[in-house]
Write a structure and sequence with these properties.
261 residues, alpha/beta, five-stranded antiparallel beta sheet
C-alpha cells in the first residue's frame, strides 16, 4: 500500500485525482491540500510514498514546493500540469511522471503503473537526480516556443506589447498586476496567478504572496536582520521576500552557488 498526498488549488482537480487513486487498490490518499504552504508542512511531518503535485498554484508553485522537500524522504512525484507540448518534451526525457489536464481514466492508470515501476526500480538518489534534471529544464525555459511570448499591458493611456523576457518584477495590485521593466511600470488587468502562466518561459520565483521576480534580472541579493531576502533587479527596483517564502527563496539561491573546489 502506498500513501498518497494530493496538492492542487483546484478542488475539481483534487477530486479527479482522488477518484483515480480510489480505483487503484494500492493507492491510499492520506491528505489533500489546496494550499501549498500547508501541504509542505504536512509532507515534511509525514512524507508520503507518492505526491500528486500541481505545478501552478497561487501561494507557491509546485516546482518551489518540490525543491523544498527533503531529498532523503523525497516521494515519487507526479506533476499535474496544464502546460503545452513544449513543457511535455522536458517531462518525457526526465523520468518524472506527469498528468496533463484534463486526463481520463486510462491515462491515470498508465501513470499509476509507472509509479509502481519507479518505486520498485528507483533509489532515492535516482529520484532526486530525475527531479533536479526536470526542474532545471523547466526553469531554463527549455520548453519555450521559438517565438518569444509577449503580453499586452497599459502605461498611462496607451497599450504596450511587452516581451516577457524583459519584465523584471510582477506584483499584485488589487485587480491588476504591476509589471516592472527598468524604471517603467505597466499594468494589466489580471490576477498574479493568471499572469504567472504567461511567464512560464521565464525563471520566475515567487518571493511573497504578491510578488514574482524574474531571476534572469536579479543582480544583487542581501538579507534583512530577520533573515528575509532583499533582491535588486537590473533596473534598480528592490523587492523583499516574506517570511512564509523564506525557505523556497533560500533553496533556490543555494542551487545557484558554485560548488567548493
Amino acid at each position: 500500500m502506498m500513501d498518497v498526498i494530493i496538492v492542487d488549488d483546484e478542488s475539481a482537480a483534487r477530486r479527479t485525482v482522488r477518484e483515480g487513486c480510489e480505483r487503484e487498490g494500492d493507492f491510499n490518499v492520506v491528505g489533500e491540500f489546496g494550499d501549498s504552504r500547508t501541504a509542505l508542512e504536512a509532507i515534511r511531518a509525514r512524507p508520503p510514498h507518492v505526491l500528486f503535485l500541481d505545478i501552478q498554484m497561487d501561494s507557491m508553485t509546485g516546482m518551489a514546493l518540490a525543491r523544498a522537500l527533503d531529498p532523503a524522504t523525497l516521494p515519487l512525484i507526479v506533476f499535474v500540469t496544464a502546460y503545452d507540448h513544449y513543457a511535455l518534451e522536458a517531462f518525457e526525457v526526465s523520468a518524472v511522471d506527469y498528468l496533463l489536464k484534463p486526463f481520463d481514466d486510462a491515462r491515470f492508470r498508465a501513470t499509476a503503473a509507472r509509479v509502481r515501476q519507479r518505486r520498485a526500480g528507483q533509489s532515492s538518489g535516482d529520484r532526486q537526480r530525475s527531479l533536479e534534471s526536470l526542474l532545471e529544464q523547466l526553469e531554463r525555459g527549455a520548453f519555450a516556443s521559438e517565438r518569444q511570448p509577449r503580453v499586452l499591458a497599459e502605461a498611462g493611456s496607451r497599450m504596450h506589447m511587452l516581451d516577457v523576457a524583459q519584465v523584471e518584477v510582477l506584483e499584485a495590485d488589487r485587480n491588476y498586476v504591476r509589471l516592472t521593466i527598468g524604471r517603467e511600470v505597466f499594468h494589466a488587468r489580471s490576477t498574479l496567478q493568471q499572469a504567472e502562466r504567461s511567464f512560464q518561459t521565464q525563471p520566475m520565483l515567487r518571493i511573497s504572496r504578491s510578488c514574482l521576480v524574474n531571476m534572469s534580472h536579479v543582480k544583487e541579493v542581501s538579507r534583512t536582520p530577520r533573515g528575509d531576502f532583499i533582491l535588486v533587479v537590473t533596473g534598480g527596483t528592490t523587492v523583499t521576500s516574506s517570511e512564509g517564502f523564506r525557505d523556497p527563496v533560500r533553496q533556490y539561491l543555494e542551487r545557484l552557488k558554485l560548488a567548493p573546489a
